[in-house]
Amino acid sequence: QVQLDESGGGLVQAGGSLRLSCTASGRFSHTYAMGWFRQAPGKERRFVAAISWSGGNTYYADSVEGRFTISRDNAKNTAYLQMNSLKPEDTAIYYCASGPWPLSVKVLKAWGQGTLVTVSS
User: Fold this and answer.
1) Are 81 and 19 in contact (CB under 8 A)?
2) Tell me: the pLDDT tens digits for 32-74?
3) I need a labelling partner for 121 at 20 to 30 A (CA). Which of 3, 40, 44, 99 fits?
4) CA torsion angle for 9, 6, 30, 90 (degrees, to 10)?
5) Mean pLDDT of the chain
6) Are 86 and 65 contacting, i.e. CB atoms less than 8 angstroms apart?
7) CA distance 47 to 84
8) CB distance 60 to 38 below 8 Å
């Protein structure tokens, strides 16, 4: 009964920035880690970033480290993904996810519906 709703996607020029938001509702546990995955057309869904329930631990895919920052506000049941220096290869549908730490597809409890990020050259 956990529901995750993403927002913030859109079209942006290469080098620009976007901030994605993910709000949890229903039977959501604040002890869950939250994170982001992405899926480009014809490709597998890949891990992007994760943050522990306390916010004290974060982990990033090598392809985005140094450009993306994940954060969370437990009072608002919301996680964020700040994306800077965007590249065309970042174009994908971005999915919010939650589950026990460390976050992985093996322990995920919920997925969001996805929000499309398109980065033009």
Assistant:
1) yes
2) 999 999 999 999 999 999 999 889 999 999 999 999 999 999 9
3) 44
4) -40
5) 95
6) no
7) 17
8) no
Taking the CA atoms of 111, 38, 92 and 15 in sequence, report the sign of the dihedral they define. Answer: positive
Task: Name, in order, each residue with C-beta under 8 angstroms of 50's C-beta and a sequence gap of 6 or more.
Answer: 33, 34, 35, 36, 58, 59, 70, 101, 102, 103
Please list, in sequence order, all residues whose beta carbon lies within 8 angstroms of the beta carbon of residue 94, skipping any fewer than 6 positions away: 6, 9, 20, 36, 37, 38, 48, 81, 114, 115, 116, 117
Integer Cα distance of 20 and 101 in angstroms: 21
Dig out the tokens for 71 from the structure.
């954060």
Secondary structure in 3-state letters for 64-108: CECCEEEEEEHHHCEEEEEECCCCHHHCEEEEEEEECCCCCCCCC
